[in-house]
Amino acid sequence: MKLMLKRMLRQPNFTVGKLYIDGKFFCDTMEDVDRGLKQNMSLSDIRQIKVMHETAIPAGTYKVIVNMSPGKQRMLPRLLNVPGYEGILIHRGNTHHHSSGCILVGENKEFGRLAHSTKYEHMLTEILQKEKEVSIEIV
Fold first, then answer.
1. Tally of CB atoms within 10 A around 42
2. Whole-angstrom Cα distance, residue 71 to residue 59?
3. Which residue in 76, 90, 107, 119 is a FRET match for 66, CA 20 to 30 A apart?
4. Is 4 buried (19+), middle (13-18) or exposed (0-12) by CB count in 10 A?
5. DSSP per-residue codes, 58-111
6. For residues 137 and 48, what is the distance between their CA atoms, to the nearest angstrom?
7. Which secondary-structure segment (H or E) carries 26?
C-alpha cells in the first residue's frame, strides 16, 4: 500500500497537506513548518535547519509500520528511518501545537485547525494494520 502526502499550503507556523491512499484522497493533514528539508540531505544539514518541535520532517519516502506508541498508549502508524527525527507518528491533533514533527490527520475546514481528527486516526490505523507493506511519499 502506498500513501502520498502532498504538502499544499505553507504558512509561517504550519503546513497543510492532503493524504492519499493508493492514489485516492483520504483526508487533510497538518504538520509543523516545512523548511525545505529533503530525505537525501546530510544529517548535519538537516540539524542546522531543523527547529526542534517546529519543523516538518524531510520530504521523501519512508516505510510505515503500525505499532504501540508508548507515549500515546495506542496503536499508531509510525514512519521509520526519518533522518534527524525519532518517533514520527501519524495521529490525531487539531493544531500544529499537537504535531512536534508528526503528521496530523483530519479535515481542514478552519484556517490553522483540523476537525474530526480522532475519526481519521482510527480509520487510517485500521486500514494500515491490515497491510503487510506500507510506504509514504511526502512531496
1. 10
2. 25
3. 107
4. buried
5. PBEEEEEEEEEETTTTEEEEEE---TT----BEE--SSGGGTTTPEEEEEEEET
6. 23
7. strand 24-31
d(CA 64, CA 2): 10
Cα torsion at 26, 51, 13, 21 (round to 10°)?
-10
- Which of 5, 55, 45 lies closest to 25 in space, CA to CA? 5
Residue 11 — pLDDT band, cuts 50, 70, 90?
very high
Rounded to two decimals, the pTM is 0.96
* 3 state DSSP class of 117: helix
Question: Which cell numbers in the block locate residue 136?
Answer: 509514504
